[in-house]
Amino acid sequence: MLRCLLKAKIHMATVTESNLAYEGSITIDKELMDMVQMLPYERVMVSNMNNGERFETYVIPGKHGCREFCLNGPTARKGAAGDRIIIFSYCHVEEHETKDFKPEITRLDENNNPID
């Protein structure tokens, strides 16, 4: 049996831009993606701490080290610059792998710098 577990989380990122004119997705600093092992085009769930919105989209890598979190296309309606968000990625794991499974979690300060 496969279990769906949290694979990665970026906790309390600050949205830096909302771009309605873009075709869709969330742009994330490539350095922060690498820290939690998120891949380009990976499906993620995003939870907005400011307005309670939760939505799914996919990741587009931003410039390495830019600390960018941009809501693109229709997701731009789900938040605004300055909102704090949590980004979750999940994976399917075989039952026997669940005991030692640990997600990659990075917590960010208000400037999108890792704090742990």
Q: How many angstroms separate the termini?
A: 33 Å
Strand content: over 45%
CATH class: Mainly Beta
The arrangement of helices and strands along the chain is EEEHEEEEE
How does CATH name the architecture? Answer: Beta Barrel
Q: What can you see in these coordinates?
A:
This protein has one helix spanning 30-35, and strands at 2-14, 17-19, 25-29, 43-48, 54-62, 69-72, 84-94, 104-107. The chain is globular. It has 1 helix and 8 strands. It has a single domain, classed as Barwin-like endoglucanases. It has 116 residues and is mainly beta. Strands 2-6-3-5-4-7-1-8 form an 8-stranded mixed sheet.
Task: Please outline what is shown here.
This protein is mainly beta and 116 residues long.
Secondary structure topology:
Layout: E1 2-14, E2 17-19, E3 25-29, H1 30-35, E4 43-48, E5 54-62, E6 69-72, E7 84-94, E8 104-107
Parallel strand pairs: 1-8, 2-6, 3-5
Antiparallel strand pairs: 1-7, 3-6, 4-5, 4-7
Spell out the key features of this protein:
mainly beta; Barwin-like endoglucanases; 1 helix; single chain; eight-stranded mixed beta sheet; 116 residues
